[in-house]
Design goal:
4 strands, alpha+beta
Length: about 100
């Protein structure tokens, strides 16, 4: 069901998806990228991730180096005028087989 993700992460991802649909940002499988705010670091999707841990200075991800690299690849692609595919951003992710065809 959750492809190995935790129940909390799957529930949160469902909430994020519904929110994007309710706001008209996600429709018919397409995202209006002009209405998405790109952040580097933990975001709405990360909120349910079991790898996200509280740290004294705020939120810290146990996989922060990898997340930062993925965020940077997306930002650089968007700044260059293209919407990167999962294959261009996160092919080394252990979950890549789930989204490689997006």
């Amino acid at each position: 069901m959750g492809e190995g993700y935790s129940d909390a992460f799957c529930r949160n991802m469902g909430r994020v998806k519904r929110s994007l649909q309710d706001q008209g940002i996600l429709a018919n499988g397409e995202i209006d990228a002009s209405r998405v705010r790109l952040v580097e670091g933990p975001d709405d999707v990360c909120a349910g991730c079991p790898n996200l841990a509280e740290a004294a200075a705020g939120l810290a991800c146990l996989s922060q180096e990898k997340v930062a690299r993925y965020d940077r690849a997306v930002r650089e692609g968007l700044e260059g005028g293209t919407l990167p595919t999962p294959a261009q951003v996160c092919a080394d992710c252990s979950w890549f087989s789930i989204c490689r065809d997006l």
